[in-house]
């Protein structure tokens, strides 16, 4: 469908292991193996990366390659904003998870007055800052960037002044330094958390649906509770890190953690979430074929991607038909964004 735009971000600057930049192409290989036409069905924007910076040592020990990450975040935010403003639903396929801060910034640029909720399906909380990070890898920091959270109360590092300069610039991509309120974050399957991140989760009351809770309650109830928690938000962004999956499925990701979701749980959860009209962007990250055998993770991830996309198309077509039926005479120009795109297509079909 013409209302979806794929945004491909082959960056791995924020990761501690190499190979996530190959994740998008691993998904394309899985697509070919399945005999699917997925990657020729949609318009595509490719975000320019700065991966060559990895060949040079970074002077920023507590936020590695932050100067280059900043450039990629800016480009990612621009790509997401442009897609939304052109009437598309951005479906983002990225390397390491650091670029999610750019995705959120792009939504904020497109909707500066809207309140954005975040569903973070991940093994990790990604709430570190240069003041708290034990590794300096920025893929552990995107939610701190998006919320503008330094967490100096849990300070363990003394970042160089140049690091802080870039960090403050990074936090202001997309807005005034807080694109998302911490209380508007919901975690799913987060299970590898440092004390500094636990501090923030407790401070702001960030809800985490553990894998055991998903299993016991069922995916449908979990999705309902997530949407209830974010009911005061105008828009919702869903970020799916494949390390939320159990490593028994595949270890083709940089930071696998035991006791994750099954493929079926991930499929159904993401599908139920994306069916909600408030969801304005969806993202998949951290497929790393260099850590895998026979592209197993990408095969599973592509199945999730294709299934969730098909549900998105079906749900948006249905909701647009309902919107059109409530309008008399039918007037697609009054609909916003991708709803307008679908409406125009539906009316053309009827004519």
Give the helix/strand layout:
Layout lengths: L3 E6 L13 H12 L8 E5 L18 H20 L3 E6 L5 H11 L5 E6 L20 H6 L13 H11 L13 E4 L6 H10 L2 E3 L1 H7 L1 H11 L5 E7 L21 H12 L4 E7 L10 H31 L10 H14 L1
Parallel strand pairs: 1-2, 1-3, 3-8, 4-5, 4-7, 5-6, 7-8
Helix pairs in contact: 1-10, 2-3, 2-5, 7-8, 8-9, 9-10, 10-11
Descriptive overview:
The protein has 351 residues and is of the alpha/beta class. Helices cover 41% and strands 13% of the residues. The chain has helices at 23-34, 66-85, 100-110, 142-147, 161-171, 195-204, 211-217, 219-229, 263-274, 296-326, 337-350; strands spanning 4-9, 43-47, 89-94, 116-121, 185-188, 207-209, 235-241, 279-285. An eight-stranded parallel β-sheet has the order 2-1-3-8-7-4-5-6, sandwiched between helices. Helix 9 packs parallel to helix 10 (296-326) and helix 10 (296-326) crosses helix 11. The protein is globular. The model has no long low-confidence stretch (mean pLDDT 94).
Q: Ranges with pLDDT <50 over ≥5 residues?
A: none
Shape type? globular
Instruction: Kindly report the average pLDDT value.
Output: 94
The span between the termini is: 18 Å
- Percent of residues in helices: 40-55%
The value of Rg in angstroms is 19 Å
> What spatial order of strands do you see in the largest sheet?
2-1-3-8-7-4-5-6
What share of the residues does DSSP label as strand, in percent?
Answer: 5-15%
Query: How many extended strands?
Result: 8
The number of helical elements comes to 11
SSE-based structural type: alpha/beta
Biggest sheet character: 8 strands, parallel
Q: What is the succession of H and E elements?
A: EHEHEHEHHEHEHHEHEHH
């Amino acid at each position: 469908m013409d209302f979806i735009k794929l945004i491909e971000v082959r960056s791995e600057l924020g990761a501690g292991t190499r190979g996530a930049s190959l994740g998008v192409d691993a998904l394309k290989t899985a697509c070919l193996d399945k005999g699917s036409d997925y990657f020729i069905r949609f318009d595509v924007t490719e975000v320019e990366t700065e991966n060559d910076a990895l060949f040079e040592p970074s002077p920023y020990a507590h936020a590695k390659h932050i100067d280059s990450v900043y450039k990629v975040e800016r480009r990612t935010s621009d790509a997401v904003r442009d897609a939304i403003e052109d009437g598309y639903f951005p479906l983002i396929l990225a390397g390491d998870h650091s670029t999610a801060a750019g995705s959120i910034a792009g939504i904020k640029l497109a909707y500066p007055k809207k309140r954005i909720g975040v569903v973070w399906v991940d093994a990790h909380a990604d709430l570190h800052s240069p003041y708290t990070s034990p590794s300096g890898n920025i893929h552990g920091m995107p939610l701190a960037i998006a919320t503008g959270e330094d967490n100096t109360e849990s300070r363990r590092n003394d970042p160089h002044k140049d690091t802080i300069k870039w960090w403050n610039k990074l936090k202001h991509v997309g807005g005034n330094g807080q694109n998302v309120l911490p209380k508007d974050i919901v975690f799913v399957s987060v299970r590898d958390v440092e004390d500094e991140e636990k501090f923030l989760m407790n401070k702001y009351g960030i809800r985490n649906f553990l894998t055991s809770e998903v299993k016991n309650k069922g995916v449908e109830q979990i999705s309902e509770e997530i949407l209830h928690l974010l009911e005061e938000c105008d828009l919702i962004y869903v970020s799916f890190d494949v390390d939320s999956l159990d490593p028994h499925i595949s270890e083709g990701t940089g930071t696998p953690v035991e006791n994750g979701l099954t493929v079926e749980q991930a499929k159904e959860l993401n599908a139920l979430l994306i069916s909600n009209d408030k969801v304005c962007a969806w993202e998949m990250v951290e497929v790393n074929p260099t850590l895998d055998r026979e592209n197993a993770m990408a095969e599973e991830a592509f199945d999730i991607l294709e299934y969730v996309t098909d549900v998105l198309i079906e749900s948006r077509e249905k909701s647009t038909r309902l919107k059109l039926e409530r309008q008399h005479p039918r007037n697609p120009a009054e609909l916003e964004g991708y709803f307008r795109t679908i409406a125009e297509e539906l009316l053309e079909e009827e004519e």
